[in-house]
Write a structure and sequence with these properties.
The complex is a heterodimer.
Chain A: H1 6-29, H2 39-64, H3 72-89, H4 94-118, H5 123-140, E1 153-154, H6 158-161, E2 166-167, E3 170-171, H7 172-190, H8 192-202, H9 204-209, H10 214-240, E4 242-243, H11 253-261, H12 273-292, H13 298-335
Antiparallel strand pairs in A: 1-4, 2-3
Helix pairs in contact in A: 1-12, 2-7, 2-8, 2-10, 2-11, 2-12, 3-4, 3-5, 3-10, 4-5, 4-10, 7-8, 8-10, 11-12
Chain B: H1 7-26, H2 28-31, H3 34-59, H4 67-84, H5 89-117, H6 121-140, E1 145-146, H7 150-157, E2 159-160, E3 163-164, H8 165-183, H9 185-195, H10 197-202, H11 207-233, E4 235-236, H12 244-254, H13 266-285, H14 290-327
Antiparallel strand pairs in B: 1-4, 2-3
Helix pairs in contact in B: 1-13, 3-8, 3-11, 3-12, 3-13, 4-5, 4-6, 4-11, 4-12, 5-6, 5-11, 7-11, 8-9, 9-11, 12-13, 12-14
Classes of the chains: A mainly alpha, B mainly alpha.
Chain lengths: ~325, ~325
């Protein structure tokens, strides 16, 4: 029998984890109306997973190049607040407002990309810095009332809020997620850019030597993330029907967690967008289940952190074992 | 003449003096007052205490993104334990010890996970950051818990010769760190591990143990920072220490500590802490709201780290040139 491919194995493990979680919550929180396992609630889970999954597409691209982006939450707030300003102070059509939001997202991504890829600032430091820069900019452009106090800006025009709804229970954000995840997966697997991402993540030196523009590839990954963050911000504000400075607080954790659970190795060079989608569904199921069990939400932070560490430890030991096996087999073949 | 001017040698005092001059001109009355002087000292002390321990982690090429929330968690622990044991001076001592144990344990866990499984430090501390935040919220029930026990508030407020106690803590801890790094074999190991872990391993250094100790030291000083902060503000919550991760990392980087490992000194880091303290104070005096201050601080990090990265690239280019010349 041919041994199962390591990537397929990892995919099965993440699907298994998701299924186990669903079964676990069905047992603990019950099935039926108002409980955990029913159509309405499961659709809610998918809806909650959509935004981390959409932004996760960009973040996955970055992680495949062995990078990281800690600024997505703040970037989302900045995009949301930019649109809120256009909403509050101009009569521009909503399409222009959304285009402006996307432009801001692209610019933020470009900033990250330049800092990281052109100035060689370590990714986690560069994006940690832009995380506080983007959040500060959000506060600076925040909408204030007559007394100068920051207020939440309502964005409840029906020509905009329809984006937060759907055709029945089939929410538009879920449709957007399916399109973006599919586009991301195709880009990764069937385009030269996708292949370049993997090459850069596997070895920057080898990629440079084989003629890939490493800096440009990394930069584009950050710009794409800016785009996905802007899409996420549009759907978030449309659903909340308002923009606040608190949008995306602690959000940066979610797409990274989704990618890690879905088997995107933080050392770069492996994983894909479908994995991140499964990871996002896993995290959303976890949040929903914890809520249904009415556990103190503070535990969510503890559980999320612990799960990331557990998965990463698992991946590290699993990879070490596989590498050893491969070496041993190679040695055997060499002897024969 | 200007060509021979060694900018990197004198850059620190020049920046410091320039900073003080600018602030004195912009806000002469507020900045040069005695009250403000002690404000600056307090701010410097907390960052200085924390960076004196975190420098060990930076020197081995690691990072700690959990500084702020570990700070919050240890602040919560010291206040809760003090309350639990009846708000006596003995209870305060027990609380302080408990918080320090929590800090050391957290550091040990970081170190063990990072070295055993060879996982990037930023990822592990990114995950534990969430765990500490959650624990702080669970312990406080997401409220602010205050503590006005005199024995506790004295930690932050008591003054000797006009200087508040935290300043003495900072000086003592910085001296200990400096001594360990400069005068002990372990200190040499830390620089060696940061410079080249593989070479250190081959030359017989127990890289794993040396690294774990670094994380424990960082956890200890972070916890002490949390204790001092809680004492100064007479309260603790999951928000205590928010923003200190950036402040400590920035202090280290401005002070010439390379995040790539193997480079940096305690006096440098303390200089960074002083500059960060002045920056915090300056932003405060210019009535920049704390929500906007992140813009300035973020830019400072980016510029400082980019500068460091460029210098490193420059050095390696020069090395290559030298080798080429020698071989020619």
């Amino acid at each position: 029998m041919k041994r199962m491919n390591q990537t397929t194995m990892r995919r099965l493990i993440s699907i298994g984890m998701l299924l186990i979680l669903v079964v676990l919550f069905t047992i603990l929180a019950g099935a039926g109306k108002g409980k955990f396992f029913n159509f309405d609630n499961l659709i809610e889970v998918v809806r909650d997973a959509s935004i981390p999954a959409i932004i996760g597409v960009g973040v996955t691209f970055i992680i495949i190049t062995a990078g990281i982006d800690l600024s997505t939450g703040s970037m989302m707030a900045l995009v949301g607040m930019t649109m809120a300003n256009i909403y509050a102070y101009t009569l521009l059509p909503f399409s222009v407002m959304m285009l402006a939001g996307i432009l801001v997202g692209l610019l933020c991504g470009l900033c990250n990309g330049i800092i990281v890829a052109k100035f060689n600032v370590p990714e986690f430091i560069g994006t940690l810095a832009t995380m506080s820069i983007f959040r500060a900019l959000t506060y600076i452009i925040a909408i204030r009332d007559a007394n100068g106090v920051i207020k939440s800006q309502p964005m409840n025009h029906s020509q905009y809020t329809w984006l937060g709804t759907g055709i029945g229970k089939f929410y538009y954000v879920i449709i957007a997620m399916i399109i973006i995840v599919a586009a991301g997966q195709i880009t990764l697997k069937y385009t030269r850019f996708g292949t370049n991402l993997y090459s850069v993540g596997a070895s920057k030196k080898a990629a440079t030597l084989s003629g890939i523009d490493v800096a440009k590839t990394r930069l584009i990954a950050y710009v794409i993330t800016g785009f996905t963050v802007a899409i996420g911000a549009i759907f978030t504000t449309a659903r909340l029907q308002s923009a606040t400075t608190a949008i995306g607080m602690d959000f940066e954790f979610n797409p990274i967690a989704a990618a890690v659970v879905g088997g995107v190795a933080l050392s770069g060079g492996s994983g894909d967008v479908i994995g991140t989608l499964i990871g996002a569904l896993f995290m959303a199921t976890l949040e929903n289940g914890v809520r249904k069990l009415s556990i103190n939400t503070a535990y969510q932070y503890v559980i999320k952190g612990a799960i990331i560490i557990a998965v990463v430890i698992f991946d590290a030991t699993y990879k070490a074992r596989m590498d050893r096996k491969a070496r041993e087999e190679g040695a055997k073949e060499g002897l024969e | 003449m200007m060509k021979n001017f060694n900018w990197s040698k004198y850059s620190k005092p020049i920046i410091l003096v320039a900073f003080i001059v600018v602030l004195s001109i912009l806000r002469p009355k507020a900045f040069l007052s005695l009250d403000n002087f002690s404000n600056v000292l307090w701010s410097v002390a907390v960052i200085g205490i924390m960076v004196s321990g975190s420098i060990f982690v930076f020197l081995i090429g690691g990072i700690d993104l959990s500084i702020a929330t570990l700070c919050a968690f240890s602040a919560v622990v010291v206040v809760s334990v003090t309350h639990m044991l009846g708000d006596t001076p003995v209870a305060v001592i027990a609380g302080v010890l408990a918080a320090l144990v929590v800090g050391a344990l957290a550091g040990a866990i970081h170190g063990i996970i990072i070295t055993t499984f060879k996982i990037p430090a930023f990822l592990v501390t990114f995950a534990t950051q969430s765990i500490f935040l959650g624990l702080a919220m669970v312990f406080t029930n997401n409220k602010i818990i205050s503590c006005t026990v005199p024995a506790f508030t004295a930690i932050g407020a008591f003054k000797i010769l006009g200087f508040p106690l935290p300043v003495y803590f900072m000086v003592i801890i910085a001296l200990i760190s400096w001594y360990i790094l400069r005068k002990t074999v372990y200190g040499r190991y830390v620089y060696a591990v940061g410079g080249n872990p593989t070479a250190s391993e081959i030359s017989g250094i127990n890289v794993k143990l040396a690294s774990i100790v670094c994380y424990v030291l960082s956890g200890l000083t972070t916890a002490l920072g949390g204790i001092v902060l809680a004492s100064m503000t007479q309260q603790a919550s999951s928000g205590t220490g928010a923003g200190y991760t950036n402040d400590v990392i920035t202090a280290a980087v401005i002070g010439g500590v390379s995040l790539l490992g193997g480079e940096g000194t305690v006096p440098g880091a303390i200089f960074g802490a002083v500059l960060m303290g002045l920056l915090n104070n300056g932003l405060n005096l210019m009535s920049v709201p704390s929500t906007h201050a992140g813009l300035v601080k973020g830019l400072v990090i980016v510029v400082a780290v980019a500068f460091d990265a460029m210098q490193h690239a420059d050095q390696s280019r020069k090395k290559v040139k030298k080798v080429k010349k020698a071989s020619a």
